[in-house]
Design a protein that fits this description.
13-stranded mixed sheet, 12% helix
């Protein structure tokens, strides 16, 4: 086994091989360099490569991290706030959490709840940052030092429920309402990434994190005053405008430059 130091930019996946064993690995072209390292070791720059290479297409890609919490920031893009009846240009973010039971991986199925519970389920393509070290009361100018890497998130939302419920837990919290992945990319700047969401091949969202009215370093610093951030925590930074309803049979793809495509099927 060879111990390697994590390079600034790496594409890291978590996957299940044909023997149903779960590993982390580094994507190298169409192959994955299999690691024996766990997530804690990886964020501490301890990459232990066991000499095995597997084909990306031969394994099942899982959620890239198992977070202790999923922190979501709403209405961080002015036009999305307006289209959903929210408040644009907030001085502090609108905060909510998603349960970890909502998370599904790339190519997982978004299961629509029964029509008696909701009749309007929409997608929200987002950039998510994955925390790499424990932090509390983080200074804004130091916030990005706590980010291990970036991934793609789809904040699936029962819009009719978020418009009527006093808080967002139900409308955001159904099982499968948190597609995440397919990978974590380290060493990229999350503050200037283009997000394109397509529904059945048609572009419905096209924005960039540079349009956010509250910056990602500010969001990290602000929420760390409320709750301690732990390695592996996922912070979903909000959605640009263009969110729209999905129906059974649809395919939704959220693509973020420098990271990749998160593809999910609506059922």
């Amino acid at each position: 086994m060879v111990t390697q130091v994590l390079q600034k930019t790496q594409t890291i996946v978590r996957y299940q091989n044909q023997s149903s064993k779960v590993f982390y690995g580094i994507v190298h072209g169409e192959e994955i360099l299999q690691l024996t390292s766990n997530f804690t070791e990886i964020v501490n720059n301890k990459l232990i490569y066991d000499g095995i290479r597997v084909k990306y297409s031969d394994v099942k890609i899982l959620e890239p991290v198992v977070p202790s919490k999923i922190v979501n920031f709403g209405w961080t893009y002015a036009e999305h706030a307006k289209e959903t009846g929210g408040t644009a240009y907030l001085k502090e973010p609108f905060l909510f959490l998603k349960p970890t039971s909502s998370v599904i991986p790339d190519h997982g199925e978004i299961i629509l709840p029964p029509s008696g519970l909701t009749a309007q389920v929409e997608m929200e393509g987002e950039v998510a940052v994955v925390i790499g070290k424990r932090g509390k009361n983080i200074k804004e100018e130091e916030a990005l030092e706590y980010v291990f890497g970036c991934t793609v998130f789809n904040d699936v939302t029962a819009r009719d429920l978020t418009k009527t419920d006093p808080q967002f837990t139900r409308g955001k919290g159904f099982d499968t309402f948190g597609p995440l992945g397919p990978c974590i990319v380290t060493g990229i700047d999350p503050t200037n990434l283009r997000i394109i969401t397509t529904l059945n091949g048609k572009v419905v969202q096209d924005g960039s994190t540079n349009e956010m009215t509250l910056s990602i370093p500010f969001l990290i610093s602000w929420v760390s005053q409320v709750m301690t951030l732990e390695p592996g925590d996922v912070l979903a930074t909000g959605s640009p405008s263009g969110s729209c309803p999905m129906k059974s049979g649809d395919t939704v793809i959220v693509e973020v430059e420098q990271i990749g495509k998160l593809c999910n099927y609506v059922k």
